Amino acid sequence: MLYLLDTANVEEIKRAFDLYPMSGVTTNPTIISKEKRSFLEILKEIRAAIGEDKMLHVQSISTKVEEIVKEAEYLKETIGGNFYIKIPVIPEGIKAMKILKAKGMNITATAIFTADQALMAARAGADFVAPYVNRIDNISGNGVGVVEEIVHLFDIYAIDSKVLAASFKNVQQVHDVSLAGAQSITVGSEIMDGLLSHPLTEWSVDQFTKDWSGVYGEGKVAYNSK
C-alpha cells in the first residue's frame, strides 16, 4: 500500500512525512485554493518539504487538450522531482493523456466514478487512476465496489496502472478499498492519523508505562535501570 496525503498544507505534510511511511502528496484546485496564496509558491514548498523522490500529484486546471499539455509541461519543469500531472477523465483529458504519455510524462487520471473511465484512462497512459470513493457513495453508488471492479479489470487485461483511491470520509472506507486490492490511497491528515488510532492501543501503552513505573520509577528505561 502506498500512502499519500491529500492536502496543500505544508505543515500537515511535514508532520505526516516525519511520522508515517508516506509515498507522496496529492493536490487539486480546491485544496490549493484553501491556502489563499500563490499556487506555485505552495507547490515549490511542498516539493522542498517532501524531497525530489516522493510523488507530487498536481491537477491541471485546463479542459482543452493543448492547454492541458502546456500546463503539464510547465508544472513539471517548474516543480521538478517525481511529478505527476492529474487529468480529469473527460474526452479532451484522455487525448491529453495519450500525448503526454508519448512525451514521457507521469499521469494520474482523476475524477473517476466508473470502472470504464478508469480502464480507458489506463489505456490512454495513466500510471494511476483515482476513483472518488465517498463521492460515489454520495450518489447512491458503491465506491468500494467500483474500486473492486477496476482492480479486477486491470488484472484481466494485465494493466500496470495502479488504483489511487481518493475521497474518503472515514477509516472504514480506507480499510475496505485496501481489502479490495487498491494499491494506493490518498487521505487527509485526520484519516491518516485515524489509521493508527485505537483506544485499546492507547490503553495498553498507558498500562505498560504504569506497570513499569510502579517497579522502576518514572523516566527510567531498561538499559540504564539498576
Any chance you could write out the topology, listing elements then pairs?
Layout: E1 2-6, H1 10-19, E2 22-26, H2 29-33, H3 39-50, E3 55-59, H4 65-79, E4 83-88, H5 91-102, E5 107-112, H6 115-124, E6 128-131, H7 133-138, H8 143-156, E7 162-165, H9 171-179, E8 184-187, H10 189-194, H11 199-216
Parallel strand pairs: 1-2, 1-8, 2-3, 3-4, 4-5, 5-6, 6-7, 7-8
Name a few traits of the molecule:
single chain; 226 residues; alpha/beta; TIM Barrel; 2 domains; eight-stranded parallel beta barrel; 11 helices; globular
Report strand order across the widest sheet: 1-2-3-4-5-6-7-8
Helix content: 40-55%
As for the CATH topology of the largest domain, it is TIM Barrel
Please work out how many helical segments DSSP would assign: 11
Characterize the overall form. Answer: globular
CATH class of the largest domain: Alpha Beta
Domain count: the total is: 2
The counted number of beta strands is 8
What is the CATH homologous superfamily assignment of the largest domain?
Answer: Aldolase class I
Summarize the structure.
The chain has helices spanning 10-19, 29-33, 39-50, 65-79, 91-102, 115-124, 133-138, 143-156, 171-179, 189-194, 199-216; strands at residues 2-6, 22-26, 55-59, 83-88, 107-112, 128-131, 162-165, 184-187. It has 226 residues and is an alpha/beta fold.
Tell me about this structure.
This protein has 226 residues and is of the alpha/beta class. It folds into two domains: 2-195, Alpha-Beta Barrel (TIM Barrel); 198-225, no CATH class. It is 52% helix and 17% strand. It has eleven helices and eight strands. It has helices spanning 10-19, 29-33, 39-50, 65-79, 91-102, 115-124, 133-138, 143-156, 171-179, 189-194, 199-216, and strands spanning 2-6, 22-26, 55-59, 83-88, 107-112, 128-131, 162-165, 184-187. An eight-stranded parallel β-barrel has the order 1-2-3-4-5-6-7-8, surrounded by seven helices. Helix 1 (10-19) runs parallel beside helix 3 and helix 4 (65-79) crosses helix 5. The mean pLDDT is 96. InterPro entries: Aldolase_TIM (IPR013785), TAL/FSA (IPR001585), Transaldolase_3B/F6P_aldolase (IPR004731), Transaldolase_AS (IPR018225), TSA/FSA_arc/bac (IPR033919). Its main location: cytoplasm. GO terms for molecular function: aldehyde-lyase activity; transferase activity. One of its GO terms (cellular component) is cytoplasm. It comes from Clostridium intestinale URNW.
